[in-house]
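Anyone able to model this chain together with 6-O-phosphono-alpha-D-glucopyranose?
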Amino acid sequence: MCGIIGICAIKRNVAPMISLGLKRLEYRGYDSVGVALVLNESRVHVLKARGDVDSFLSRFKVSEFKAYTGLGHTRWATHGAPSDVNAHPHTDCSGRIAVVHNGVIRNFSIIKSILEVRGHRITSETDTELIAHLIEDEIPFSSNFFEAFIRAISRLEGSYALAIINSSEPNKVYFARLKSPLVLGLGDGFNIIASDIPAVIEYTRRVLTLEDGEVGWITPTEVKLFKLTDDGIAEVKYESIMSRVRFIEWSFEEATRLGYPHFMLKEIVEQPNAIKSTYDGNIDDPIVKLAASLLNEANHIVLVGAGTSYHASLIISYFLSKIAKIKSTPLIASEYKVVEDSISREDVILAVSQSGETYDTLEAIRAFKSRGAKVIGITNVVGSALSRESDIAIYMRCGPEIGVAATKTYTSQIMVGSILAIYSAIENKSLDNSSTRNLIDDLSKASDILGLSIKTSLSILNDSPLRGIKSMYILGRGLGSMIAKEASLKVKEIAYIHAESYPAGESKHGPIALVEEKFPVYFIATSDSLEIIGNIMEMASRGASIVVVKPENVNLNISSSHSINVVDMPPVNSLLLEPYTLIPYFQLLAYKEAVARGYNPDKPRNLAKTVTVE
Ligand code: G6P
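re: yes, here you go
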């Protein structure tokens, strides 16, 4: 996945606008960067290099160029290694057409062979470059550039968000979207096309989310939009475009670091406010109640999510069972085929995705929908593909998350799932009125608990809490085992430490073989699984170096004969609140260790925030 931006303006230099847009899109990929500027009508000026946005912008002094139309791209490599030549934008043989792309062209090998036979000089290993040559190839058979563009993209299979410039039309940016996100920012004397809203809100808050199959162009003062269908191409009327324009309420400051050294730290620390907003926005929302009745009608419920969202799905599934006595199956989204054949119209899919654009999650819901299942989407992004393709969309409302490692959206997803579980229990009467009130009251304390837990964690964790550690286990039972999965993902993805997580009861079936003197094992103890003490003791007897993290009021009777480090987090009186008291310790553990090791936690290697490829 990658970030793309295209801008055209009158009387306004787009070079600094593109530069800033690239900074805002860097979370989508950062292995190489490039811009294309229309400096005159004979060719497009392309600058590109392997590396991150800051080094690129200062090396090429991009903001000092002067242009009224241009493109920008920040890359997360799929086809072709990260390198100068594979960086976008890509051009055709004439150097007049430049393309930036987010997505994957599946039939690229066949297109490449055809283009080579027709004499095109392909210089990179990317699928994107082929698009520039395809358009060039179609020009002689088309009455204008737009027609050539449409003919070219009709030959593509896969996914794309595209922005294209052509030096012969110096004030236009062409675009198209299929299965990769794309938004339009409407300005005064300029228009912007970009992968995501943070790239445009510095300049305009009037934003329209494009849909699959939409193509068109922008000029500084005009937007032309068309829908590609099996029957041809139909223009979208101006009134219809305008009716889809949204005013973005959240401020640019909310999406910036506000003095914190990293987005990740800012987002960990702002969890109390984020979760409060999730709670306030959903606790009485009729949409959540509607979703709860759909869950109660379902024959079978499958939860799908990727990465952190999958880990939140595990907890949501657990709470649906514990509170509402509803059975569900949590599934890693990319493994949806495991249950696909058994899905029918009586089933409900609960898809969890912060961005609402994760390819694997969208593929899963599309496959299940085609078998008649209903979809409930839990997402943070209004207008995302998940929100549009769900029968019911529930919003996390926790504000934009920029750090690649998800933190506040994890706790927010658990909050949404907990509210959903409570309403499902009210609907099927597995909870009486007073128990319901108690649980709702418990949840209202999540924000304070998170605040206390963050404070406690910051006061205990030193600057390099995992100093020298190369490999470790993070274990739990019940709820603790689910939180442990997220804890180990955080440690892996930003501190680059092999942190393995499995349910603690499994140690004796294999993994304990690795344990020797001083092998680090963290346990997450939750009130539903006090029997974890047995697993702690079996590790202690083999000399493991043990840290037990638990809510203060969970009493394990740990024998003092073993030197076990116990970390007490703020006490909570409800299982529903235990994720909020336990996870901040691990988010901050990973964060502090990453920083101590000299890694940038906002840009973990090989990862990106929104994964729009399979
Ligand atoms: C990427 C991110 C993870 C995220 C996952 C799912 O892998 O690096 O932090 O949890 O995608 O993203 P989603 O937007 O669907 O929640």
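Residues 37 and 70 are 4 Å apart (CA to CA).
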